[in-house]
Design brief:
The protein has about 575 residues and is α/β, with parallel strands linked by helices. The protein has a seven-stranded parallel beta sheet, covered by helices on one side. The chain has a six-stranded mixed beta sheet with strand order 25-29-28-27-24-26. Helix 12 (about 395-405) links the parallel strand 18 and strand 19 (about 410-415). Helix 4 (about 160-170) packs antiparallel against helix 5. The longest helix has 25 residues, at about 205-225. The protein is globular and about 90 Å long. The protein starts with a strand and ends with a strand.
Length: about 575
């Protein structure tokens, strides 16, 4: 149980937290000035310090280097005492466990420095072994160039030891390189240490600059976490060193670790600036849900594939208005785009379909073609359209052509030169001649069911909404039962359904997977804090709609932690409460 470390905001595995000392420290941060080390037990017995709330006390410990044999580690294991002041335990990747500490210092972190796979394995091993609401401290590894990627991996606490020592050796550190001081005829940084003539700048000044640069980079990281945009920064920053690029890509291969910690939606837009974006959790999760949860309910109409647009949601763009006018609701519109894959029109507001901004060059890379083709192939495998109309420009055609052999229905191309020319739109209109249009009611009902599918699970739309009616207008549809009682509402900003109590009870009683949070015997008002959580579905992600129930109350709200964190944490907001009823 931790009393002195609380996670405030999450951005994937990165967290903005507070080390709750007398003068609180917002992490990720340097903590050199706030740490007292009680000393190593290798040199003799150590007295347990009195400690106080102004410092993070490192309890008496035995640090083990990388590669220590298990039998040696077991023989020299430390039994950490339970103390009532901010404290840290020293562990290794192999011996990490819950010792009731507020933070955990990894003794063998230096052995993985410069090795992407090794650092990934170390961070994940320790993170898996210690409670979610405790700080992970890597000592002696942080530099301005690597600290952002380490924070992205899930590290909270750092010191300036490495950066300072490198400065005393005459290495001038920046976020993109490490220079020999004698090679610099001009100092590239305007910090206080560098505000002197170059000829007067010595190794001690260099060490001070390195610490300043490290602190500046951590401030940038904290700002990015607050904005929910650390990944956008990391895609560029990780390229400053080969081992950081390796670590970044190793982390991308740990989908389960990152996915559990990544919100289902964000307030920030997603920058699709590199091919690494294709491996982002948000992109992979959307593609997975579209191809395993969503099912088209327009299968008696042709599928019309169209290109994406810069404007979001797509239906508000000039080009898509022209497509819709030509189609006249006689075909089901699905947009093709990189890096998202395919976006059925019902899901155009669902995160991240209306929240990304891509680099447009008019050319698709091999990775983009492969990814979008595979998503389209999987999408069509779950569909039963009578035919496919590909109203796409020349650069999109290779993607459709790659999947034609896997489709048992005819594919017709309607673009003569550009999708919005009169000839091309006329071809599209003619291709749909004789097809019956679907009604506004059918469009709205299928949208509600599609949102439920993607948000809650395969088949959820039919399980929850067999009989209902809609009021208000898209994209702010309200879902009501036959008596007029509101069950849910469409949230246009994120493309999700927000449930009322009556809707939550219907969800709870249905066959659709229900994400539940079990609480103690109290009536929550505004939020449920982690200490009040008895149990939670480990499939819960930040932003998920959740049913909250305990002996005294039944409620519905949004998750503010992932499910495992709700169970493990002893501080912080587990879920916000929208509606509550006393039992």
């Amino acid at each position: 149980m931790t009393d002195y470390f609380e996670v405030l905001e999450r951005d994937g595995a990165a967290r903005l937290a507070e080390l709750r000392l007398a003068d609180p420290v917002t992490t990720p941060a340097l903590v050199d000035d706030y740490v007292d080390d009680a000393g190593s037990l290798w040199t003799g017995e150590r007295e347990l310090p009195d400690g106080d709330e102004s410092r993070l006390t490192v309890l008496p410990h035995r640090g083990l280097p990388a590669g220590t044999a298990d039998e040696v580690a077991d023989s020299f294991a430390v039994d950490y005492p339970d103390v009532d002041y901010p404290n840290a335990a020293v562990v290794s990747a192999e011996t990490a466990a819950d010792h009731g500490a507020d933070a955990y210092i990894v003794s063998d972190a230096g052995g993985s420095l410069g090795h992407g796979a090794g650092m990934k394995e170390l961070v994940l091993a320790v993170r898996d072994a210690i409670p979610d609401d405790t700080g992970l401290y890597l000592s002696g590894v942080a530099t301005p160039r690597n600290v952002a990627v380490l924070a992205y991996a899930g590290v909270d606490l750092f010191d300036a030891h490495r950066a300072y020592v490198r400065g005393t050796e005459g290495r001038y550190l920046t976020t993109d390189d490490a220079y020999f001081l004698e090679d610099l005829d001009e100092l590239p940084c305007p910090c206080s240490a560098c505000a002197k003539p170059r000829e007067e700048f010595d190794h001690e000044d260099c060490a001070e600059h390195n610490v300043n640069a490290l602190e500046t980079e951590l401030r940038r990281v904290r700002r990015r976490i607050r904005d929910g945009r650390l990944r956008d920064y990391i895609e560029g920053q990780a390229r400053q060193d080969q081992w950081l690029t390796a670590l970044f890509r190793e982390l991308d291969q740990q989908y389960g670790y990152l996915e559990a910690r990544t919100p289902v939606y964000r307030g920030a837009d997603l920058d699709a600036a590199t091919e690494d974006t294709l491996r982002r959790v948000e992109i992979q999760r959307f593609a997975e849900r579209v191809t395993t949860r969503y099912r088209s309910r327009f299968d008696d109409h042709p599928l019309v594939l169209v290109p994406c647009s810069a404007a979001k949601p797509y239906s508000e763009s000039q080009s898509h208005r022209q497509y819709m006018d030509a189609i006249g609701f006689r075909g089901h519109i699905v947009s093709m785009t990189s890096p998202i894959g395919v976006v059925p029109q019902e899901l155009e507001t669902t995160y991240p379909a209306q929240h990304y901004d891509a680099v447009v060059t008019g050319r698709w890379s091999a990775d983009e073609v492969e990814f979008v083709s595979e998503v389209l192939r999987r999408y069509l495998a779950r569909s039963d359209y009578p035919r496919v109309i590909a109203h796409v420009p020349e650069e999109y055609r290779p993607i459709v052509e790659r999947v034609e052999d896997d489709v048992d229905v005819p594919v017709e191309y309607t673009v003569a030169d550009h999708p919005t020319t009169s000839e091309s739109l006329g071809n599209l209109r003619d291709a749909l001649d004789g097809e019956l249009a679907y009604s506004k009611r059918e469009r709205e009902h299928n949208t509600v069911r599609a949102l439920a599918d993607v948000q809650l699970g395969d088949g959820a739309g039919d399980d929850l909404f067999e009989e209902f009616r809609t009021t208000s207008r898209y994209p702010k549809l309200q879902v009501r039962d036959d008596d007029g009682t509101q069950l849910a509402a469409q949230v246009p900003r994120y493309g999700t359904l927000s449930f009322t109590l009556e809707g939550a009870r219907r969800w709870d009683a249905s066959d659709a997977p229900t994400k539940r949070v079990e609480i103690d015997g109290f009536v929550p008002h505004g939020s449920v804090l982690a200490p009040g959580v008895v149990d939670a579905d480990e499939e819960i992600r930040v932003g998920d709609e959740v049913v909250i129930e305990g002996p005294a109350a039944y409620a519905v709200g949004r998750a503010q932690m992932h499910g495992a964190a709700m169970i493990e944490s002893t501080r912080g907001e587990a879920a916000s409460v929208r509606h509550v009823a006393e039992k």
